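Hi Prof. W.,

I finally got the Amino acid transporter transmembrane domain-containing protein prediction working! I wasn't sure whether to trim anything, so I left the full sequence exactly as given:
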Amino acid sequence: MSENLLRTPFLKSESFRKNYDDDDDDESYLKSSFFEQQADSSFLHSVINMSGVLMGLGQLATPYAIQNGGWASAFLLVGFGILCAYTSYILAECLKYDLKSKNYFDIGYHAFGKKGRIIASTFIYLDIFMAAIALPTLWLRDLSKISFLSTMGIILSLMIFITVGCTAVFGGVKANQTIPALQLENIPAVSGLYIFGFASHMVFPDIYKSMKDPSKFTKVSVVSFSLVTFLYTALGFMGAKLFGPGVSSQVTLSMPEQSHLYKICFMGYCANTND
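And this is what came out:
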């Protein structure tokens, strides 16, 4: 499929072009010292940052969602991953269309004028108040300098994944539980749990603007969302097979409390929450 077919029609809208044409020349912006100072994140740094903000508490609920939604609901999880990856591509296209745009406020303004900026600002601030953990990341423009924090978050998420798996090997819990095929009545609630694991688009504009080569942002999105979706799906089936109908909404709470694995997993959970 060609890039022109994938490009969102709103980029070609008359209102977007009007607001875009009213701005100053983008070439002078590209030559500014601010832009050059910030665009120093490599492809690997960008993948680490995006994967780090995606991997969070959402992974703990995937076993509960798989068990209550049925194994067929995993297609919904993968579908949400693909959909969110595509919306990140659309976001990059908006930022690429007007090189002066730096965030959702600018995109809203160029699309719908001052009203668009107000609407975008309202939703962003509501999102910040509801997910204050992302606020420190929004203060930092040079994300390559904090990639170690994202790396730590990825390591902690993998530690939780490994300890849950080790519960089947060393913890005395057998992975012999039955997962139902599909429970339609639970799909609305399960959908919310699935989409929560991909809700990190707030920081994507900063990741895009911090890249040395923003044209690789789409590849960064594909790699990051693929890794995270695989982790979520694998952990979901693993937890559901281990704990069955009794699985908690946070899989760590279903592990045997007396085991050392539970203590390790609990420490990883606390550290990942603070991270």
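Residues 62-271 form one domain. Does that look reasonable to you?

Thanks,
D.
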